[in-house]
Design brief:
Structural class: alpha/beta
Strand order of the largest sheet: 4-3-2-7-11-12
Order of helices and strands: HHEEHEEHEHEHEEEHEHEHEHHH
CATH topology: Rossmann fold
CATH superfamily: von Willebrand factor, type A domain
Shape: globular
Largest sheet: 6 strands, mixed
Strand content: 15-25%
Number of helices: 12
Length: 303
């Protein structure tokens, strides 16, 4: 996957076609079989002649409750900001994998998994193949740990395997994560023959071996500034918890983080955005310390 090119012009055309459509008219009515996690194998981010230095980026979208508006915002307005900003910052070959996350206790589709892609139509295909279930269990917890499971166990990425460069994995939501998933649920959801339950910390550590892992807390809902929710994420990720006060700046924030870790200056990056977006991104990243891209022998990235 990821063997086609991004085109800003093509995205502008797509964005125009979506401008007056509802989410129901854009996204899949039922979860796509192509995104089913059952018996999942490997999602690959590979170098190619047109993408000789691929960079794997996984974006995990919470599709429960009010978070379901975020995929619509991305496909209509923000995908161009994401790709153009990353590429213009010197990361010429990003390959993006979009996943959807729900609640493995209550939802019918708690995990939907796309493919790594670089091209405009392919990225659009996987984004719009997501079913926005709108569920969730109302317990202030969702199944973000499934994103870490996919990243840590079910991806193979050339940026890490060939060059010792970690990819990026972002979860986006407004709640805490369940602290474990049972072996029975893993069997029912993914066909796993796993004898023991798996904890959130185990899966996070596995994902961190390959990826710079971040969580973007969308600070707009009933969990705005919630000390329980924010405390969970600070304990898990430290400075890699990003608190964002407006979901319209999600892609700008993701792109800025990637650009900063590749040596770009903050003012140069946010200078490409509107003053409103630049202000939101700058505020969200105000306490963020820029480190270096992790190499194979570095272990955990130092921020």
């Amino acid at each position: 996957m990821g063997y086609s090119n991004w085109s800003s012009d093509a995205y502008s055309t797509l964005s125009d076609t979506y401008a007056h459509k509802s989410a129901d008219a854009i996204f899949a009515k039922i979860a796509s079989s192509n995104m089913s996690p059952m018996n999942i194998t490997i999602r690959e981010s590979r170098d190619s002649d047109i993408h000789p230095t691929s960079l794997a980026v996984i974006i995990n979208l919470d599709v429960t409750g009010s978070m379901g508006r975020i995929p619509e915002s991305i496909v209509k307005n923000e995908l161009g900001t994401l790709m153009n900003t990353i590429i213009d910052s010197g990361v010429k070959h990003p390959q993006i994998l979009f996943n959807a996350i729900g609640d493995h206790y209550t939802d019918r589709y708690p995990l939907q998994v796309g493919q790594f892609e670089s091209g405009t139509s392919e990225l659009d295909k996987w984004l719009t193949s997501i079913n926005i279930e709108g569920g969730g269990g109302g317990q202030n917890k969702e199944s973000y740990l499934l994103a870490w499971l996919v990243g840590g166990r079910h991806t193979s990425i050339d940026c890490f395997e060939k060059r010792g460069e970690k990819g990026f994995l972002f979860t986006i939501g407004d709640e805490k994560c369940w602290n474990s998933i049972s072996s029975d649920r893993l069997m029912n959801l993914m066909g796993y023959s796993q004898s023991e339950n798996i904890t959130d910390k185990q899966l996070l550590e596995e994902a961190q071996r390959l990826y710079n892992v971040y969580h973007i807390h969308v600070n707009e809902t009933q969990y705005k500034d919630d000390p329980d929710v924010i405390g969970y994420w600070k304990d898990m990720l430290g400075e890699r918890l990003i608190i964002l006060n407006n979901h319209d700046a999600i892609c700008a924030t993701i792109a800025t983080i990637i650009a900063l870790q590749h040596g770009c200056d903050m003012s140069d990056v946010v200078g490409r955005f509107s003053s409103h977006t630049a202000g939101m991104v700058t505020t969200a990243l105000a306490t963020y310390s820029v480190g270096v891209i992790s190499k194979l022998n570095d272990g955990v990235v130092t921020l």
